[in-house]
Amino acid sequence: MTPFDLTSFDFTKGGLAAWTPLSERNSNWPVVYVLDDAASNPRLRNVYVGESLNATSRINQHLSNPDRAHLTTVRVIVDETFNKSVCLDLESFLIRMLAGDGAYSVLNRNDGITESAYYDRDRYQETFEQVFDRLKDDGVFTRSIPEIENSDLFKLSPFKALTHDQAIAVEGILEGLFEDLETHAAGTGHATSTTVVQGEPGTGKTVVAIYLMKMLVDIQAAPPAEDFDRDTMFAEFFAGGYPQLLDGLRIGLVVPQQSLRKSIQKVFRKTPGLRADMVMTAFEAGESDEHFDLLLVDESHRLNQRANQASAAQNTKFRTITEKLFGHDDTSKTQLDWIRAKSTHQILFLDAAQSVRPADLPTHVLDDLVEGARQHDRLYPLVSQLRVNAGADYVGYVRQLLGASTDHPLAPPSPPQTFDGYDFRLFDSLAEMQQQIRARDAEAGLSRLVAGYAWPWKTKKDKAAFDIEIDGIRLRWNSTQTDWIASPNALEEVGSIHTVQGYDLNYAGVIIGPDLGYDPTRGTLIVNRDSYFDTKGKENNPRLGKTYADDNLLRFISNIYAVLLTRGIKGTYVYVSDPALRAYLSQYIPAAG
């Protein structure tokens, strides 16, 4: 087979004129091309990837586009075996890789990313990797494919191929939003709306939130005469008056968790049309002087009710924001009430089973949100499992193992399940599990130890100390709250729930501490309150008259471990401190060795 050809030339009329007559395929064959500006301005580093059946005509259109005027180089990939499906797939692959590499800002819209099946697709993937290597040799890429795929820039990129249920959610949300905006524009009402996207870990709630943010700003910026030569699922929203409806629309993304928020801000800085200041805390949204037309809230279950905050300053802010928005200090108001007061439309991404602290929104509030959205046809469930290679059944299996309260016997899976192709193991030795996590990190990268908050955080005040000591193994908690997973010392440390919730790992080594135990007589999980060291995770709420008994605490601790046990893409390793709980779980998790 003749290998693909990669030709480069200047992105000028003269460069195109000299290249076109070199082959008939340059104007009549499916090709993929890359436009970049690395040669003239290595600091700007913009890139655009496209595919076309007539490269000459398409590149000539780009030369007439002022938004592409600063680009300097064209790289065209031609292969005698390429067809339209292959080119669409290669285009999507290169866009995803470029966004994840982070050396360029990708100028493409995100609505054309595809991952469709076609004849001999597996064979073409080898060619794609060869194309990647050639472009890397040219300086277009700076990192390897595994390095890119393990990065936050890749995992949190808006350039994703959506699953069927994600695409249904995006299309339905856009249709509902535009219907509301048209109603308001026509003067026939001032429609407000609350949309809920519900999904278990790994179903891509954050992916959909980021995707929507990018698509909305792209629709806002769409030129009056659309110059794209593709027909995509969402193409209709880029014309027909839709961009005008979004003119001046004020949108924002609220992310309660600090680490995840910082990672998303890093992605937004690299993405044309998006800005880091679009990503904010609930406090920042509540304090803002502007009213938002639309607020998206990722991990909405982590929004707070009125409770003792992490600092005195935040306690003061909670009161002043509530007073500002509602005229007086109403302790029944939550951060969800702030979001509703500060925006006309809200899109809430949630999973009630991932609430991990008493200050999180109460379960009944989340249940009411879901039911209200269902009644108004604004509920979009996500079910396709994108993270865990074991499939959706694994998440339910783990939740079933940990999911009962102390008032009722556990109802574990019957019979125990195994998950082909997924490395799920129970270790009797923490030293052995740590060794295996290090081995997996050397092989696949992104393998980490994580744990429940069952040991005090001594190293916050004494950097020379150790936090976790088990059978001669001495470990420290994560030394940073921001992007810990990718930090230099992460392999030697242990991540807490607050640094890993919302993230992917290739392999997770989960340490279940003495905060969670098992009563074999009653057949129930039990809480050891004295071994749970998250102060905010167990303190009562006298302001609201709430006292959290052990069965309340069990729900949060069980949720924490269920979240930790669903971080691993390729595998999950488990070490259990409590002997009775280890014996119980040994019936359902295969033994290491």
Number of helices: 20
Low-confidence stretches: none
Q: In whole angstroms, how far apart are the ends? A: 46 Å
Strand content: 15-25%
Number of strands: 20
Percent of residues in helices comes to: 25-40%
Number of domain units: 3
> Which CATH-level-2 architecture of the largest domain?
3-Layer(aba) Sandwich
Sum up the overall morphology in one term: globular
Looking at the structure, the CATH topology of the largest domain is Rossmann fold
Strand order of the largest sheet: 12-20-17-13-16-15-14
Structural class: alpha/beta
Mean of all residue-level pLDDT scores: 92
Report on this model:
The protein has 593 residues and is an alpha/beta fold. The protein folds into 3 domains: 5-149, no CATH class; 164-382, 3-Layer(aba) Sandwich (Rossmann fold), CATH 3.40.50; 392-585, no CATH class. The chain is built from 20 helices and 20 strands. Strand 14 (468-470) and strand 15 (473-477) form a beta hairpin. The mean pLDDT is 92.
